[in-house]
Amino acid sequence: MAANVLVLGGGMAGLCAALAAAERGARVLVLEKGTRLGGSMALSNGIVWSFSRTDDVRSRLREGNPALQDLVVEQLPAGMDWLVAHGVELQPLQHYFGYGHGRPASGPQLAAALGDAIRQRGGELVTGAGLQQLVVQDGAVTGALAFGADGSVEAKARSVILATGGFQGNAELLARYVTPYAQHLYLRANPCSTGDGLIAGMGVGAATTPALDAFYGHAMSAPPARFGADRFQEMSHKYGPMAVAINLDGRRFADESAGTGEETLNIAMAGQREATAAYVFDADTADRPYLADGMRAWGFPPREVMRSLREFNAAITAGEGGSLTPPRRGEPHAVARPPFTAALVRAAITFTCGGLGVDLDMRVLRRAASVTTLPLARAPADEMHVTPVPGLFAAGCDVGGISGRSYMGGLAQALVTGRVAGTQA
């Protein structure tokens, strides 16, 4: 198989990249590991959103690459118009959280519209073909080897785009980079994103970004609850910042209100024993100890739970949430009124935020030919340089350094980086 541009991954980032390349006359081939197009986008709530202003990104996201973050913010409006021009049915612009904006869509309809637009321009879309390794000649990436139900597939191309969706489905990589309790994490995404792009990129010498331990997700109802992908949104506990989060040792372990939403608390939970906790809310625990006794069945020590909740209530009531360990700087809600509720929750991962290092053209950087990008690096100007791997680009969650422990919109990241990668490839 041969093409001008080979796109590895048929989720939102890959589809946007393929269409952007096809618009410019490239012969495009998309290899998707799963049996359908759309990736995790097809399972999401479909809201294509991000921050409205770069100033808000600076104040709310303390980590990540500012240039890449600004690229997403600045190019999102044009990207949404581009989707509509290609048949995607976006709802009117809406505002979120006081600092974001975006347009809701249907994931399946979005995937179908982009797929149709690619085919209309001569592109080929192949499902059931997962990336095994990149093919390199004279230091440049010239194609890829993939495997599917019928065996190996070798595709040649002038440019290759990695858009395999991150490494949230790879237990070994999660245990290495994210949490020793990786085996307990829920996968709140499609099952096909197993780090194929990251592994293949590193295999040809690609650089990686900081914060490989950061990811996006929301806590979900813990076992014995059972549910399928069609209930991911329903079973997510996004109210966490207004609750008190207590681990299996009966202690608070994070500032529940930190970050841009419950996804920050969810990351902290992933590092707790069994990646499990309870969200406690709306209870006068000092006078209603049966709440803690009820949590005993889940393995929580009642005395420690009561001590944690009493300390929390006392500090919040006194207006001293910042003095708690860990502090509670926002959402100063004491757990003091009936009804009395505790929800057993488990950390879930939707996509990883660390990944391959890229420049603003989404060219993957070569580790051996690039210097560190850490902000405290000091060297003469003639020593500061970055060099891309010829022929290799990345998009979506295979790109690291955009979101971190706070979140700026996964579908927006896929849209913007996908369009840039496809255009440059």
Summary keywords:
27% helix, Flavocytochrome C3, Chain A, domain 1, 10 helices, four-stranded antiparallel sheet, FAD/NAD(P)-binding domain, alpha/beta
Helix content: 25-40%
- Which CATH class of the largest domain applies here? Alpha Beta
Broad structural category: alpha/beta
The total number of structural domains is 2
Unreliable stretches: 284-288
| Proper CATH architecture of the largest domain | 3-Layer(bba) Sandwich
Rg result: 23 Å
β-sheet strand percentage: 15-25%
> Can you tell me the CATH topology of the largest domain?
FAD/NAD(P)-binding domain
Main β sheet profile:
8 strands, mixed
- What number is the mean pLDDT? 92
> Based on the structure, what is the oligomeric state of the protein chains?
single chain
- CATH superfamily annotation of the largest domain: FAD/NAD(P)-binding domain
Query: Gap between N and C termini, in Å?
Result: 18 Å
Provide a count of the helices. Answer: 10
Number of separate strands: 19
- SSE series: EHEEHHEEHEEEEHEHEEEHEHHEEEEEH
**What overall form do the CA principal axes indicate?**
globular
SSE inventory with pairings:
Blueprint: E1 2-8, H1 12-23, E2 28-32, E3 47-51, H2 54-60, H3 66-85, E4 94-96, E5 100-104, H4 107-120, E6 124-127, E7 129-137, E8 140-148, E9 151-162, H5 171-177, E10 186-187, H6 196-203, E11 215-216, E12 220-221, E13 244-247, H7 262-270, E14 276-281, H8 290-295, H9 302-317, E15 341-346, E16 348-349, E17 351-352, E18 363-365, E19 388-394, H10 410-424
Parallel strand pairs: 1-2, 1-9, 2-6, 9-19, 10-16
Antiparallel strand pairs: 3-5, 4-5, 7-8, 8-9, 11-17, 12-15, 13-14, 14-15, 18-19
Helix pairs in contact: 1-4, 1-10, 3-10
